[in-house]
Recover the amino acids of this structure.
């Protein structure tokens, strides 16, 4: 019995030491000058009143029988009515897919993510009646110790899909990200959503090195600009 207690003590001691070592290593990395520069870079862009301003002439889309305009807004500036509209769209588009994966659907958690103080949005509205056609939720953040533009949501109404809007919005996002010197555009996509995965692969997104192989999702990223933003009439 005495031997068993000694073994247990040694195992627990080693585990405690290992956790401390991991914590110290992580803390050391986060406090490195390079990471601090990345944090400041993301913080600077987050502080902009409107990061889409340099691209104002591209904040519209008129093609394939679809005419929409785009507007930037930060989550804290949203009205309750607008928040409900955004939540309703993502619920209609994604709830069933979430229910079929280990994440499950948690409305309260999703709302907290959508309307976090750092959430940034591009709202897409029909030019005819100003109704919501799509939205992009993104943040300038730190991912894997570098500054990135993290795409949280690209949600498009079912009746306006297949008209090139998704690709245009990704082109706008890519142009903005690399304009502000972000090192990556990063996003997470469900493996079960095959068409969406194919869409991002077609835009030259790649599976990140730290994306878990046995997970039900991919972490995808893009390291350089390949899409060209062009005006459409």
């Amino acid at each position: 019995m005495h031997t068993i207690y000694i073994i247990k003590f040694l195992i627990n001691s080693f585990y405690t030491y290992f956790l401390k070592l991991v914590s110290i290593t992580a803390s050391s990395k986060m406090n490195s000058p390079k990471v601090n520069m990345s944090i400041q870079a993301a913080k600077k862009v987050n502080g902009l009143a409107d990061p889409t301003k340099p691209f104002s002439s591209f904040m519209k889309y008129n093609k394939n029988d679809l005419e929409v305009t785009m507007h930037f807004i930060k989550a804290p500036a949203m009205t309750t009515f607008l928040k409900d509209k955004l939540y309703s769209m993502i619920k209609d588009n994604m709830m069933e897919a979430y229910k079929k994966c280990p994440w499950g659907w948690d409305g309260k958690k999703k709302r907290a993510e959508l309307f976090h103080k750092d959430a940034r949005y591009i709202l897409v509205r029909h030019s005819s009646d100003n109704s919501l056609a799509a939205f992009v939720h993104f943040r300038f953040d730190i991912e894997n110790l570098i500054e990135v533009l993290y795409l949280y949501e690209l949600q498009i109404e079912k009746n306006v899909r297949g008209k090139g809007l998704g690709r245009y919005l990704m082109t706008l996002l890519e142009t903005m990200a690399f304009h502000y010197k972000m090192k990556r555009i990063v996003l997470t996509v469900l493996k079960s959503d095959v068409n969406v995965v194919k869409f991002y692969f077609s835009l030259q997104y790649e599976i990140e090195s730290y994306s878990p192989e046995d997970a039900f999702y991919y972490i995808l990223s893009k390291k350089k600009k390949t899409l060209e933003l062009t005006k459409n009439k």
